[in-house]
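Service request form, structural biology core

Requester: graduate student, group of Dr. S.
Request type: structure prediction, single chain
Budget code: on file
Notes: please return the result as structure tokens.

Sequence provided:
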Amino acid sequence: MTSAIVRGRGVVSPLGSDLNSFSRSLVDAAETQAVVARTTRYELEYLACHASGFEPADRFERHELRRLDRAHLMAFWAADDALAMVGDGPDPERCAVVVGTGFGAAGSHEAQSEAWRDRGPRAVSPLTLPVVMSNSIAAHLAIRLGWTGPALTIATACASGADAIGEALWLLRTGRADRVLAGGVDALHVEHVVTAFLRMEAMSSRLDDPGSASRPFDADRDGFVMGEGAGFVVLERDDGSVTGLGTVFGYGVNNDAHHIVAPPDGGSGAAACVRAALVDAGIEPSDIAHVNAHGTSTSRNDAAEAAALADVFGPSAVPVTATKAVMGHLVGGAGAVECIAAVLTAQSGDLPGVRTLSTLDPEIDGLIDVSSDRRSIDPGPALSTSFGFGGHNACLVVG
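Core staff response, request fulfilled:
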């Protein structure tokens, strides 16, 4: 199958909001970026990984800062950086935008709901709907660029960013577009979202040790740390005439059809998704040099993912890392930022360790080759996995 060339890439993340900082911190981070954040209501405490180096006032006009959501600004920032790497492109009608997001403009939605409740209907901004509608980020990006091709929004929870890149690959393959800006974003340090995750007991409660709270595959993991960020890539069809910054070889997508928030024991859906991605890329399991795992640091997900990887590759047959250990969970942005991380690792051969891994879960021990130590790996394609609430599975083969 035809691959897609990565012509540009940009990130906003707790590891940095430019490619140099992100790449350096990915491997060298001495600590996670988690800090204890205290909300203004109900004395609620939770752990948060905030975007590093992201200063919206440095780039955006006052009317943008006033009217748009933090998620919009993160998406614009990462997209602008990705687009700055490419020159003039195809005609606007041949250019597409695909955005993945779990919650969209969650902060603006909460703010306008509070305004209505506290001060009445006239306090609600007449610009609310153009900001909080689910397709708003994709629409605003298309307007900013003047691109009149497809402008799509993917909402598959934590798989959204990976699905956006995968769907972009398919747009290129089917000839619906010649250039696609694709990625994912979420900015969810928002009280009602955080409270809901806390009520589910999905987030870590390790308030006394925030730097080690996100512990993918560890025996003492107790949930994820909420992050925020965006990742975007500019993709074009690989016709052999262009040298890019990376390659998207294949995409697998399916659904567990099992439970709204829990994967099936053994990770059968995830394993099928990995296999689909490998087939789509036209490669064998033995060709994969490393896996950037979804690795949420939740009990059920990590166990199911480890079982799935062992099923496809064999027990401990491929080096595995999990970048949520050092940047938290970016939700809709996770799959896109982690895809970029997987490309960087595949190209450098420098595999980040899961820094917070202390004692591997006995149920996972022997299933995957994961370490807290930084390692060198052989060159070769990488697999980036993303699994979301609703049973959504998305896997990308990149390099």
